[in-house]
Amino acid sequence: MRNVAHLIAGGAALPAPARFGEIFDPNAGQVQAKVGLGGSAELEAAVAAAKAAQPAWAATNPQRRARVMFAFKALVEKHMDELAHLLSSEHGKVIADAKGDIQRGLEVIEFACGVPHLLKGEYTQGAGPGIDVYSTRVPVGIGAGITPFNFPAMIPMWMFGVAVACGNAFILKPSERDPSVPVRLAELLLEAGAPEGILQVVHGDKEMVDAILDHPDISAVSFVGSSDIAHYVYSRGVAAGKRVQAMGGAKNHGVVMPDADLDQVVKELAGAAFGSAGERCMALPVVVPVGEKTANALREKLLPAIAGLRIGVSTDPDADYGPVVNAAHKARVEGWIQTGVDEGAELVVDGRGFELQGHEKGFFIGPTLFDHVKPAMKSYQEEIFGPVLQIVRAESFEEAVALPTSHQYGNGVALFTRNGHAAREFAARVNVGMVGINVPIPVPVAYHSFGGWKRSAFGDHNQHGAEGVRFWTKVKTITQRWPDGSADGGNAFVIPTMG
User: Which parts of the chain sit beneath pLDDT 50?
Assistant: First the structure.
């Protein structure tokens, strides 16, 4: 059976003593590989390699670092099919979604290729008598990323792309559920010309996470996962003196106004709610139709669209989505469906018990639809992270704005309307970090920044874009004066702010 090893100092390394986690084939419901789970010993080796490599990498001019990123981009594109099939085989998302996962990560790599411009500082000539002041952005040193199972290519590239381009060394701890693509990406960055020790991959569970958060030589940590763990990572990392960005869960809403094009809304909802089996922090699991007439018409149009969804193995080119990642996650999602039933929501379409012929042991869940979901229900308050869509009816625009605004999560929200005034009011007033207008999954482009509000994000900086550069660098400001050669230097030194 295949073993997935750490990638430390440019070479594969299994943990000693050996601890292993199981990697499933979600289509068959069987173990296909094992991953070595490490701890402080493996992390120490990675940190030592990072400390040896980072100073020279930071001293490399940013244009040369950008060339490595350009070469890496070309290699990922060359190996796109290989990476997509590897990703799909461990995660379960269909090949088209797997390629999208990789492509969205590559867009951040493209952004990182502009690092010579992104790192330019500020300069003031004549801030005082003969005094100039300038600032530069310097790398934080060694960064680390702790990434989730649902985007094993995109989220690591969101993190290490910017961090490495800025001159840092980076240690990645991916999810142990689907770790092979992150390792392959690190190999490709080495092939692109990055020095050994600049991007390393260590595998593990909570033991490895705690070792990362506590290590004194790791200056900054980026995390994506559930909100409870995000809060834990943020609190422990900050207590250890680190810079931390920790992205948590979500419960994204799609508000449908009476004037919306319902046929287009339904088409968008089918992909946003059920694509990738709902295992996306930017999925749209809650739809809020405004007015009874809108709600009834939307529900009527949703039913045939849901019935037409094709669930298949991840390599089926005609499948709309594949299995969830493992048996535990399948049980969790089905448990939330039962919770919704117990709470009194109307179960319109039940996806439990779905079996794919020939793959009866696979981790498949059919699309599920609830109606008449109420804000007090636990199934509405918490993230389900599966192919489950909930209809929460609103009587007015005000009520519709209040639902995502008052929710504990503030990641993403969408409004469907033809009314420009309603769109403008909604975008200005809703208390959510990322807003889409007739865009169901409002993930910002790579040169803007990704991040939610409230319990969806902990920390002061968002992912990628200009915010990512700020997170992975720190500002150094230099005040300089060159004497003109006379005995007293020509003028007495005066601090610029003192006149």
Answer: none
